Amino acid sequence: MAKKSSRTEQLNIRMPKELLKDIEEISGILKVNKSEWIKIKLSEIVYEHKSRLKK
User: Fold this and answer.
1) Pick the residue with more confidence: 8 or 4?
2) Which of 4, 27, 28, 50 could be 34's S-S partner, Cβ–Cβ 3.0 to 4.6 Å?
3) What end-to-end distance do the CA atoms of the chain give, in Å?
4) Model pTM?
5) pLDDT tens-place string over residues 29-42
């Protein structure tokens, strides 16, 4: 059986421990998964920059 291609790709990022602590604190306060919060915020930033560059 052929394997379907995935519509996502994994990305590993190294970041300062202090930044990771801040992200963990924020996601804990908001009661959301840390990875989901990062994905949403990154998406917002990319959309914002892409929109600005298209003008």
Assistant:
1) 8
2) 27
3) 46
4) 0.76
5) 999 999 999 999 99
Identify whether 50 is part of a domain: yes
* Residue 42 included in any domain: yes
Domain hosting residue 36, numbered range: 26-54
Find, among 48, 20, 13, 55, the residue nearest to 34 by Cα.
20
* Residue 14, in any domain of the structure: no
DSSP letter string over 1-55?
Answer: -PPPPPS---------HHHHHHHHHHHHHHT--HHHHHHHHHHHHHHHHHHHHH-
Sign of CA dihedral 25, 26, 29, 33: negative
Q: How many distinct structural domains can be found in the chain?
A: 1
Both tokens assigned to 39: 């994905």
